[in-house]
Specification:
globular; 375 residues; alpha/beta; 9-stranded mixed sheet; 32% helix
């Protein structure tokens, strides 16, 4: 590796931390902070704490027949309707050979039997009951009138939607974590057979952990994903300090061995799952990338001590995200690319902002690239 390349990577890492420099006193500040991702659907800070930030505001889709061809009104094998989300969202159990168990996936079929899919990835504290895009955001409402199938995997906390080196111990259960294999090799066949989704005609989006994973999966599987959206992602996990901060945040959530994922810090797999280090593989893929300023904004009005703590954590996390996003942009812009970057003037790590980001990405890139407008 040339000295120029080494200097560029080191400079990118420093940039990734620069935005958060005034916010992060030390790595332990991240412990518990990722809870801000989960909004109203999970406790924040310590278990059972109160004062969750509000979920995203309700979205009003355009009017018209939501199921003009009866595509949405048919339950697929192993599926049942999500009575809380509604909007034709189905829960489906999909068998994974690599993980040796059923994986729950929420699916909203395309309005007009279109073959495009949009994978929506959750954050670090992903729940086992539902994907937060249907509870803390309004994804199913945002795309209600569009000709694209929403694919929202459930579970995968702390996974970075990656294939782990070793099984993960979650509360005494030893589980295989092979999320990349499931999303790219096992789930596409099920979606093609039962929902008509073309395995080579998909977009992928995610927030925070899921945003980083969306970029990495698109880089590794460009024939599957034609567009990628990243909201407040960590785009340089091998930057100085992140080798400590990411494992601490993971351990705080799962109380498991975070190095079962990609090995010890500095191991090759960390670099293989670093979007910044995979920038060359993303240049030909349209990307919509966002980050807030880490300055509290319209969705941040804490009314309790716990809410103030949550807001502070959200400031830290968004500062790290913005710094790494700027570093990723600088690296990507070294050569021609198809990325759009949107830096909000306010906003911390929270669902209200990610809901707005998804609305913007929908019209700016997702529907045009996927040719998924209603017709």
């Amino acid at each position: 590796m040339s000295q120029t390349t080494l200097r560029r990577k080191f400079a990118a890492g420093l940039t990734a931390l620069a935005t958060a420099a005034g916010l992060v006193v030390g790595a332990p500040a991240l412990v518990g902070a990722q809870a801000t991702e989960q909004g109203s659907s999970a406790s924040l800070g310590s278990a059972g704490s109160a004062g969750a930030p509000p979920a995203a505001p309700a979205f009003r889709p355009a009017g018209g027949n939501e199921d003009p061809r009866g595509n949405r009104g048919v339950l697929r094998p192993g599926c049942w309707y999500d009575e809380q989300a509604r909007s034709w969202v189905q829960f489906c159990n999909v068998w994974s050979n690599s993980m040796n168990r059923d994986i729950k996936v929420q699916v909203q079929p395309a309005r007009f039997n279109g073959d495009a899919g949009l994978y929506l990835l959750d954050g670090l504290r992903a729940r086992e009951e539902w994907n937060a895009w249907t509870r803390d955001a309004q994804a199913h409402r945002i795309f209600l009138q569009d000709n694209i199938t929403l694919v929202m995997p459930v579970g995968g906390q702390v996974s970075f939607y990656s294939d782990w080196d070793r099984p993960i111990n979650l509360g005494g259960r030893l589980l295989e974590y092979k999320w990349e294999t499931f999303l790219t090799s096992e789930l596409p066949g099920y979606l093609a057979e039962h929902f008509g989704v073309n395995p080579q005609n998909n977009a992928i989006a995610g927030l925070s952990m899921g945003g980083s994973a969306a970029a990495t999966l698109a880089a590794k599987h460009p024939t599957q994903f034609k567009q990628v959206s990243v909201f407040s992602g960590y785009m340089n996990p091998t930057a100085p300090g992140m080798y400590t901060m990411i494992p601490l945040a993971m351990f705080d959530q799962c109380k498991c061995d975070p190095f079962a994922m990609w090995g010890l810090p500095g191991s090759p797999r960390w670099g293989q799952n670093d979007p910044l280090l995979n920038a060359d593989k993303l240049r030909d893929i349209p990307m919509y990338v966002t980050a807030g300023s880490a300055i509290p904004g319209r969705y941040d009005q804490p009314s309790s001590l716990q809410a103030v703590f949550n807001t502070f954590n959200g400031i830290i996390l968004e500062g790290l995200s913005r710094g790494s996003t700027i570093a990723f942009q600088n690296t990507l812009n070294a050569r021609p690319n198809q990325a759009t970057f949107d830096y909000r003037t306010t906003g911390i790590h929270g669902w209200g902002y990610w809901n707005d980001d998804l609305i913007a990405a929908r019209s700016a890139q997702i529907l045009p690239v996927m040719n998924a407008f209603a017709w």
